[in-house]
Amino acid sequence: MTVISGTQCVSSVQGEISDVLGIPRHKIDVKVKRVGGAFGGKETTAGMFASATAVAAHKLRRPIRVLVERFDDMAITGTRHPYRFDYQVAIDDDYRLLNLDVQAYSNCGATIDLSGGVMYRTMTAIENVYNIENVDFNGKLCRTNIASSTAFRGFGAPQAMFCTETIMKHIAEEFKIDVNKLREQNMYNEDDVTPYGQRLTKCNIRRCWAECLELSKYETRREEIEQFNKIHKYTKRGIYMMPTMLGIGFAEHKLLNQAGALVHIYTDGSVLISHGGMEMGQGLHTKMLQIAASCLEIDISLVHINNTSSDKVPNASPTAASGSSDLYGLAVQDACNKLNKRLKPFKDAAPNNSWKEWVMAAYSNRVPLSATGFSM
After folding, report:
1. How does DSSP classify residue 255?
2. Residues 271 and 334 placed together within one structural domain of the fold
3. Low-confidence ranges of the chain (pLDDT < 50)
4. pLDDT tens profile 38-64
5. Which of 140, 255, 288, 323 is 20 to 30 Å from the Cα of 360, by its Cα?
6. What is the CATH number of the domain that holds 266?
7. What's the gap between Cα 231 and its chain centre?
8. In the prediction, which pLDDT does 310 show?
9. Which residues, 6 or more positions from 168, have their beta carbon under 8 angstroms from its beta carbon?
10. Do residue 222 and residue 301 come from a single domain?
11. How far is it, in rounded angstroms, from Cα 55 to Cα 62?
12. E strand or H helix at 137, and its extent?
């Protein structure tokens, strides 16, 4: 069975269809050319539509197409998790953060979906860019009668950052100090350790902050805006700068930090790439084309990206957690490096030949021109 689905994870849809129909995964091929926007919303929810379509196709033995009307789509589709934060914070006489106690409540909607992972990311992002000696975080998942909340860009971290920056603003207003000075007083330094035990190496938080202040001419613009607001009663301007820190990759489920790719070289010199990632507007396919062309030292016009397909790259992880370019780029590079190693004897033997001639020489000597790549 071949299924075309607008999803961020072909393996997930493949598995759901397999469970629903009671047939093994090797009989189900899920394909995606590109997705018209996603960033979390199509990580888990596409399976319900794909599974229903697959049941109809399996029963009727004919092609089935399902398009969800806009009203139904909006009613079903989940959004970012709304949060409520209750907090207590302690500081010393130098306004250094000593203790942060946070109780977080997330509105999960009708089902659990990815709410546990979202809360986990909220927990590991709660300190934002600040070195807090003690952090006590308690999160509760709240089941409610709305559409199930799901993955959404940032995956719980923006909520945590907003909470922490609200706290910083609260402290600054309470003690009548500049919030940016308060931030700088508490930012991480090199080799500091986060509340969850990660040692920060190559910590550029302070450098990035200073450069942003300088390049944006923040202080000058803020003074100009304050003067403007004093003399204009109805028209107001504003400017704000806020630091953020976001970890990439899957933290709670490290097994998902893996990627595969398949690269074919044809005898006319053209190259076909298959990888497990989804193109959803972030330019992933373009990056993979560039990596392959650079590794093989050929013109990018010779390289083509195939559909993302579960029969080409099995067990693909979701395109999520801001890590797809890193993972799939290394997988494509790994496959291309294997092919370069096989072509090297023919390049060394005839360095003035063309790419196509090297490929034909390898083919004539029965050298395989396909390779898989893997990264983790």
Report:
1. G
2. yes
3. none
4. 878 888 889 999 999 999 999 999 999
5. 288
6. 3.30.365.10
7. 45
8. 96
9. 130, 179, 182, 183
10. no
11. 11
12. strand 134-143
